[in-house]
Write a structure and sequence with these properties.
40% helix; RNA-binding; 1095 residues; 6-stranded mixed β-sheet; alpha/beta; 5-stranded antiparallel β-sheet
RNA sequence: GGGCUUAUAGCUCAGCUGGUUAGAGCGCAUCUCUGAUAAGGAUGAGGUCCGUGGUUCGAGUCCACGUAGGCCCA
């Protein structure tokens, strides 16, 4: 075996597939697990991926991070669990299954049968977990794929049962209410998404109703609503404290309050005029002003601010009915502490505040400036009433008919126009109605049946979060990256409400809550407990997973009251599923000692947005409740993947990139590089152009490697086969080794601190140093024919550097580094034969870092760069030779270094000689400037004063002393060289550079002979270019004719041999017949025409 | 409305506790190499560091106010 030659052109994607095969055949991953099986444990906890669709490029970011840190830890000998997780339960899966079935409602699911539906959900998850597994493997994600956890598993679900049971024992589980969109015909609730689909233009009766104020004779507020049925359940009235209200006196002497600007406001004027969202035949709406005038006129008595109305109490239109009088709301759904209040007690004018988008709840224009709030009949109303601590009245049943207790309304459908009419008549009879109108508006409908939706109060189950401080104290134990994550989590914990854990769906955790006829409930904590309590249906459940519908069959006997109870139909919030993972996957309930070995996790990483109140929250909540400990030590959050322009990727927008396509087009090493170099705080703009940018870097790495392989294979280089005497290493050898060791050290830090983006920035700089300095300046050592020790040293140096580099990169680029490793180490006895991923992470050898040398080479690079800058400034191209570079050195070591590098300088700058000088004046004018930063530290507020000393110093003397390593001359404030910055301004016609212990200056004057030499080289290049354009072979000989000036003729004559050799010219003739190629170029305002003929 | 956060080159972003001429990559322009070559390299143009005040010897950086965006909450 020896090192194979590698083609500079490489198909990275093809290589990735070959390496995947290699790993699988060679069982590389299994070997890694085996190798570290006794190593110190490092616990990574995988956040489960929703196994509902193929994986996207956004998942690949997180998965790359997960993989690379695990690989890094593995290289350091750690033992890992490598357990991947799949998130299985929840509405998203249901929606996809419904799509497949072509159905869209809960009703249809029930018609199909819950068992069938749930089984389809399971199948879908199983299918896509397989797909995602294959995709992850393609990405190079090394996991124990036979051992993934699924949140739908029994252990996961029962673990949550145990958790909920414990909460219940602490009295933290309670039944509350929420108000959701509801279809009476389907008898089901609707999601927010479905509502948006089903909006439809409808005409409702808009009613203006009087609410008499209490304690104010004959004074009323006027409310307006398009859902008269909700008046039955009025709780409160909201105003806007920022707008003004007019107190008006109508003709009959009664007083009304309405928003001042609403009086003359022409409602829906635009809609009517443009007939947009307007129903034919509906008359124009009247202004309040008109309505009052039609009733005999009115006058404004005074105008007051809304603030003054807050706190007034009023009489509701249905206060005589039982629901309004019942303490605790009607019917009582809530077990919380509102037992002593009835709806009537809540009839108060309140401040409406803002809605979720920051808009005022009560606005000017529409309505009357008073909004009637029915906490049991509207989502927003419900929130506000809950906020105010008001009771709720829920007037309807599942069919959206009035329940008992509502007098003439009971049994009527609330969406039936007849019902509205009956309510209106009743209000009129009782003198509460001011006016009725037809009001067209867009209103949510059941998109399927076309029925109007209503808002219905439903039972929901909550965890009382009054123990949030327990979670908050745990948050501070965690290392949050980026660290603002901590504040974000605290912010959420401070502001969150109780945790609603129920969902009225089918596929999910079966909440282990059984209710009893006396209104009590019992939480079951395990399968065993369920079996013990079961009195019915166990045989139908046994053998099935704890899901609906099977678990619903089981009826239990209450352990205390002995009553028979039924499970609630709800399933659990899916974040419970993911939050229990630090317990369920590592056997908290079965094998505590195993659990203790792996808890808490050392590391988790997830996409930030949303998780503060989802996964992070559920993890923290569950863990702090069960153990009062953080479930993980470090959390790395990353932002989102967007398209190249920064827009959201959407299937419909056509800008989505599929993982599979991206993997095969750009290659996963490129993808992983892209993800890894990204600052995790910023969104990643993903696209093929971006990938090409990264691919260039990868090609650069590959070129270094293929250069090495090409020559190493020619010379049959074998690492460590010869003894090397350290002093034989060249300066550049030592330099690149220093740089390489530095990289090892910083890489380790970068990985340990989870900031791999910094690593890649360092690597990119290192690649540049290696490629453009070390290799470019050392090429000749590899080319030369003799196999001497210098050549061997060059090989061994480059080998060591490449080996460390690819090891450092192997967690990020597992494929390409594997190929490189297997090739270059094939004869290296110190390395394993299997895989780079079985090798140890390179150590940094501090003895090999020579900081002085690094500084020197940096100076050299700086010299050459500034030389080039001078050329550009003087508009002298590199092809034009210049005479000299003047150098001042006071240090033998540096002198020898520069002498050693003379060849480099001559070559890079295209100059004739390097001159050594010791006269500072020759380089330009010196000035001394204060080094503010240092002086501030040293002198503090007296810095101003100390700066005066600078003018007492002679810049020339200071510079000489500094260059000689001496202290600077004595001065009043005892300034040292660190307090000063020496500024060197070059003389005319040259450019100077002042380094730590050297000064250089480039002479930019062009003598005549130099100019001519430049001209000749220009001419040669032009002819070479023509040869290329003419498609001549490299070794074709030619004849030239041209209208050369005398000057050119002379130069060519003087350098004939050189010229003819360079362009492979046999003869220069005056006239050329049948030339093969003609062209011309400009030279000092002369057009030179040249003809070439191939021999 | 409250909280958090961002604003720097055409684009995407760096810029540590205030310090001297504000950087990188891409793009663009010009040049260059041609024995790693469908590569590589150099140089340059391009900035009111969102605005206005303030603190300071000194502000992209700190403070206040404002403007515009993003996120979260109610």
């Amino acid at each position: 075996m020896s090192i194979k030659k590698e083609n500079p052109k490489v198909d990275f994607v093809k290589n990735e597939h070959e390496i995947l095969d290699y790993w699988s055949k060679n069982k590389t991953f299994e070997k890694l697990v085996e190798k570290n099986s006794n190593g110190p444990k490092w616990s990574f906890l995988d956040g489960p991926i929703t196994a509902n669709n193929p994986m996207g490029v956004h998942h690949a970011w997180g998965r790359t991070l997960k993989d690379l840190y695990q690989r890094y830890k593995s290289m350091n000998g750690h033992q890992l669990r490598y357990q991947n997780g799949f998130d299985c339960q929840g509405l998203w899966v249901e929606i996809e299954v419904e799509k497949e079935l072509g159905i869209k409602s809960k009703k249809e699911v029930e018609d199909l049968g819950i068992e069938k539906f749930v089984n389809l959900c399971k199948e879908r998850v199983e299918k896509f977990s397989e797909v995602q597994k294959d995709q992850s493997i393609r990405l190079g994600y090394w996991m124990d794929w036979d051992n993934s956890y699924f949140t739908m598993s029994e252990e996961n679900n029962y673990a949550i049962w145990a958790f909920l049971k414990k909460l219940h024992e602490d009295g933290k589980i309670y039944r509350g209410t929420d108000v959701v969109p509801w279809s009476g015909r389907s008898g089901t609730s609707y999601s927010q998404m479905e509502i948006i689909e089903g909006r439809k233009l409808t005409v409702h009766k808009g009613v203006f109703v009087k609410f008499p104020l209490k304690d104010k004779e004959n004074e009323n507020i006027l409310i307006w609503t398009t859902t008269p049925w909700t008046l039955s359940s009025n709780i409160a009235v909201a105003v806007n404290k920022k707008i003004n209200y007019a107190k008006i006196k109508a003709n009959d002497g009664s007083i009304y309050y309405v928003a001042e600007t609403n009086l003359k406001y022409q409602r829906l004027n635009k809609e009517f005029a443009e007939k947009k969202n307007w129903v034919d035949g509906v008359p124009k709406l009247k202004t309040l002003d008109q309505i009052f005038k039609e009733r005999g006129g009115y006058e404004i008595i005074e105008v007051i601010n809304g603030k003054k109305l807050i706190g007034l109490t009023y009489q509701g239109p249905f206060d005589h009915l039982e629901p309004q009088r019942t303490k605790g709301g009607y019917p009582i759904h809530d077990t919380s502490n509102l037992q002593d209040k009835s709806a009537i007690d809540c009839h108060i004018i309140i401040d409406g505040g803002k809605d979720s988008e920051g808009n005022d709840m009560v606005v000017e224009g529409e309505g009357t400036g008073f909004v009637h709030m029915a906490g049991g009949c509207g989502a927003i109303d419900n929130k506000i009433c809950k906020r105010e601590g008001f009771v709720e009245i829920s007037p309807i049943d599942n069919q959206a008919n009035f329940i008992q207790g509502f007098d003439f309304m009971s049994g009527l459908s609330v969406t039936d126009p007849e019902t509205a009419q009956k309510i209106i008549s009743n209000l009129k009879e009782r003198g509460l109605l001011l006016y009725v109108e037809d009001y067209p508006h867009i209103y949510p409908h059941c998109w399927r049946s076309g029925d109007e939706l209503v808002f219905k109060q439903v039972d929901e189950w909550y965890i009382n979060m009054d123990w949030r401080n327990k979670i908050k104290s745990v948050v501070d134990e965690i290392n949050w990256i980026p660290n603002w994550g901590r504040d974000r989590e605290h912010d959420w914990l401070d502001n969150m409400g109780d945790w609603m854990i129920s969902k009225k769906r089918f596929w999910g955790l079966a909440l282990p809550i059984w209710t009893f006829e006396d209104g009590t409930f019992h939480v079951v904590g395990s399968k065993e407990e369920l079996k013990e309590l079961a009195v019915e249906g166990w045989e139908k459940f046994d053998g099935n997973t704890p899901h609906r519908p099977w678990v619903d069959y089981v009826k239990i006997k209450h352990p205390k009251s002995g009553l028979i109870g039924t499970r609630i139909e709800d399933v659990g919030n899916p974040w419970l599923d993911a939050g229990i993972v630090p317990f369920s996957t590592i056997k908290y309930f079965e094998d505590k000692s195993y659990w203790e070995e792996w808890f808490p996790a050392d590391f988790i990483t997830e996409c930030f947005p949303g998780q503060f109140r989802n996964w992070f929250y559920s993890l923290l909540a569950m863990s702090s409740f069960l153990e009062e400990k953080a479930p993980f030590k470090t959390l790395l959050g990353h932002a989102l993947v967007k398209d190249e322009k920064g827009d959201e990727m959407h299937k419909s927008a056509g800008n989505a990139i599929w993982f599979d396509d991206a993997a095969e087009k750009m290659g996963v090493d490129v993808m992983r590089w892209m993800y890894s170099k990204q600052n995790v705080e910023n969104n990643l703009l993903f696209g093929y152009d971006k990938a090409d940018e990264v691919r260039k870097k990868l090609i650069s790495l590959w070129n270094i490697y293929s250069f090495f392989c090409t020559y190493a294979s020619l010379d049959k280089f074998s690492p460590h086969s010869q003894k090397i005497i350290p002093k034989d290493l060249t300066l550049l050898d030592n330099w690149i080794i220093s740089k390489s060791q530095q990289l090892n050290a910083s890489a380790k830090l970068n990985y340990e601190n989870f900031e791999v983006d910094k690593l890649l920035k360092n690597v990119e700089t290192f690649l540049d140093d290696l490629s453009n300095w070390y290799i470019r300046r050392n090429r000749r050592r590899f080319w030369k024919s003799e196999n001497d020790s210098d050549k061997y040293i060059a090989y061994q140096t480059l080998y060591d550097v490449i080996l460390d580099l690819i090891k450092v990169l192997s967690p990020v680029l597992p494929f390409v580094t594997e190929r490189m490793y297997l090739n270059i180490t094939s004869t290296d006895k110190n390395e394993n034969k299997d895989s780079i991923h079985l090798s140890d992470f390179p150590k940094c050898d501090d003895d090999k870092i020579n900081n002085e040398l690094i500084e020197k080479v940096d100076s050299l690079k700086k010299v050459i760069e500034s030389g080039r800058a001078v050329r550009k400034k003087a508009n002298i191209k590199v092809r034009q030779p210049l005479q000299s570079l003047r150098v001042l050195l006071n240090n033998d070591e540096i002198t020898s270094f520069i002498k050693d590098q003379e060849e480099t300088i001559l070559d890079e700058l295209n100059i004739k000689e390097v001159l050594f000088s010791d006269e500072v004046k020759e380089f330009g004018t010196l000035t001394l400037k204060p080094n503010f930063k240092n002086m501030k530290m040293k002198f503090g507020d007296e810095m101003q004063d100390a700066m005066k000393s600078i003018s007492d110093l002679d810049p020339l003397k200071v510079t000489k002393n500094v260059l000689n390593g001496l202290a600077i001359p004595k001065n009043e404030h005892e300034l040292t060289k660190d307090d000063l910055i020496i500024d060197l301004k070059a003389n005319e016609g040259s450019e100077s550079f002042l380094g730590n212990d050297l000064i250089v200056s480039l002479d930019t004057t062009i003598s005549d002979s130099l100019r001519l030499e430049g001209v000749l080289r220009d001419l040669i290049r032009q002819i070479q270019l023509m040869r290329k354009e003419a498609n001549f072979e490299i070794d074709d000989r030619i004849i030239i004719s041209a209208n050369f000036s005398d000057e050119l003729k002379n130069i060519i004559e003087e350098n004939k041999e050189y010229f003819m050799n360079e362009v492979l010219c046999k003869d220069i003739v005056a006239n050329l017949e049948n030339s093969d190629y003609n062209s011309s170029f400009k030279y000092e305002n002369n057009e030179i025409e040249i003809s070439l003929k191939k021999l």
